[in-house]
Amino acid sequence: MTKGVATAIELFPALKDKCAVRLIGRLNNVKEQSRVQQEKQGFINEVVSFFTGETRRRQDYINKQLVDVVEDTLDQLTDVMGSVALNSRVLCMVLDELKNLQSHTEAIANEVIDLRSKFAELEDTLNLRYSLLKDAVEEMDSRMKAHQQLDMVIHRWKSNALNTLPCSLRGYSVLDQLWWGDLGFYIQQYPGGEADKLIQYLHDQVVACFANDLQVEARTRISRDVWMEEPSGSVMAMPSVIQSINLLSDWAVEDSAPFVTLMCGQFTDSQQILTVPHLMSAERLGRALVGEFFVTRVTA
Amino acid sequence: MKVGLVLSGGGAKGAYQAGIIEAFAEYNLEVTMISGASIGALNGALVSASGNIAIAAERLAIVWDLIATKDILKINSELYPRYLTMLAAAGLTGVGQLGLGLLAGWAEGSKADIGFVDTSPLTDVLNHYINPQELSQGTPLYVALYPYRGRLHAIKEFITGEVMKRFDTQNSVFKHVQSLSFEEQKEALLASAAIPVLFSPRKVGGRLYSDGGQGNYKKAQGNTPITPLLDQGLDVILVSHLENGSLWNIDDFPNENIIELRPSKKIAEKGIRDTLGFDAGSITRWRAQGKADTVQLLEKLVRFARNRTHLIESRTVLQDKVGLSNGSLQSRSLEQTMAKLKKKE
């Protein structure tokens, strides 16, 4: 847009504004007449003016124009004061609303803080629940594996895989394997209800296997020697087997694990383990061995 | 926007009006109707024939530059004795000058109404720069003419009106230039500028007329010829004055929106010598003053009007908004929501 067009846009409304034209025009006229009045000084000018009446006319003109200017200015001032008053009133309203909004903001902020703490509580609760759930799932998983291992190992015993060992050592071997496997892990990690059930189940299986191996009833008492008797094709003659058994059973002491101590040949014939009966049933032996492996050893 | 322009008489001081038109051109302020007297009629004719304000400003600049360099006034050689008397009169100031000149002219005894100054250089300028075709189709122009009734009558009216300033004298008449034939247009323009004695009266419509600025000296009815522009539905009338402290009274026209362009500094100190002072220095000075005074006044007006408009608009908007809110800025929906929130607690 050129300067001419831009200023015409501003000028036209100004020229049409009668109030503005009146005030500015009259002010300009008064200035010019006052200047001329001042410049027309001197005796001759004053005498001439006296006769022609020019000075009086000019002064009347100046006075009239000044009154008009003052009146118009008063009108404008009144307008401006009205605007200022309106602005002040609106400002008060704005301030009131601002205070109201501040109060609401405070309430909302408090609400947010409250919500935030509740969220934190909820998070803690959820984390705890999740943790418990995770533990439960892990326990269940571990228990299933323990069960699976137990069934697998017992199945192997029942399949005569251990027939090269003396009867008592078969039990020892199974229990030792179970101790170092999933069942042992489960019993140690999750002692209590389900573990006790598994131990009881193990006991029942071991007793049944013992009884089955000797073809006797579970409560039939058999001599200790029979339990320790080496079968044909026994591997007990192999020094490595004996060494392995000794090494693996080095945890067993007479006081806490007499049966294991005896099974693993830790004593010479001259030594007597008073706590191991000479006659014992499959049930007795099974209970003792399971107890020494999975009760006494765990609590030790 | 309909803008009227009144161009007062004042001889060489008409260069001030060239400055006014220059300022108008900067604002792109087109003029709808013009009324002029004496030099104002000649300037008005240039503006009217130009078609638009920018061209008008250019032509006025060219013409006044020419006037500044060329002798626009030539003495009629057969009137030399009168010339000597006029020269004596030039040594006086103000009233004494023209009065003695007129009296001397009359006293020389010649009854011929031949002007002292030969207007042929002026006529040449008019012929060259004012195309009658363009003038006929141009902005409506009115010129002030004073019925000529002889030198004695002119002198009497001059003394009672201009000198004594106490009596109303005969009014000027106004001619609509576009209603005249081409020849009469030129005669009317020259008649309007025909200072009695100095210039010959001209015939328009079968009657002799001289300087339109003579009409009713006391009220400057002829020299500030606003009459033809009254009641024409103009949005604003801009009135230019070429003398110090003109007593033309704006309050005589209460129904019109008028703004006067008055010189902010002394425009004339030497009376007739300023009126006939077509010299480069004065012309340049008057042109510059005309433009500066106009720009200053219009800028002041624009600033004031702009701020006033903004004040009124913003107050209206604010009142509407305050009115809508019934004295409170509270949001009902927000208050309801906050109430629900607090209830939950």
Could you explain the architecture of this structure?
The complex is a heterodimer of chains A (300) and B (345). Chain A has a two-stranded antiparallel sheet. The mean pLDDT of chain A is 86. With 300 residues, chain A is mainly α. The longest helix of chain A is centred in the middle third of the chain and has 105 residues, at 54-158. Chain A has eleven helices and two strands; from the N terminus they run αααααααβαααβα. Among the domains of chain A are: 70-139, no CATH class; 162-296, no CATH class. The radius of gyration of chain A is 58 Å and the shape is rod-shaped. In chain A, α7 (193-214) runs antiparallel to α11 (282-299). Chain B is built from twelve helices and ten strands. In chain B, the strands form two sheets. In chain B, strands 1, 2, 5, 6, 7, 8, 9 and 10 form an eight-stranded mixed beta sheet that branches. A two-stranded antiparallel ribbon of chain B has the order 3-4. With 345 residues, chain B is of the alpha/beta class. Chain B is elongated, with a radius of gyration of 26 Å. Helix content of chain B is 48%, strand content 12%. Classes of the chains: A mainly alpha (300), B alpha/beta (345).
Task: Give the key terms.
heterodimer; A: 300 residues; mainly alpha; two-stranded antiparallel sheet; 2% strand; rod-shaped; B: 345 residues; alpha/beta; two-stranded antiparallel ribbon; 48% helix
Distance N to C terminus of chain B: 66 Å
Shape of chain A: rod-shaped
Task: Determine the mean pLDDT of chain B.
Answer: 81
Please estimate the helix content of chain A: over 70%
Multimerization status? heterodimer
The sequence of SSEs of chain A as H and E is HHHHHHHEHHHEH
Q: Please give the count of helices of chain A.
A: 11
Please give the count of helices of chain B.
12
Radius of gyration of chain A: 58 Å
Give Rg of chain B in angstroms: 26 Å
Which class of secondary structure composition applies to the elements of chain A?
A: mainly alpha
Number of strands of chain B: 10
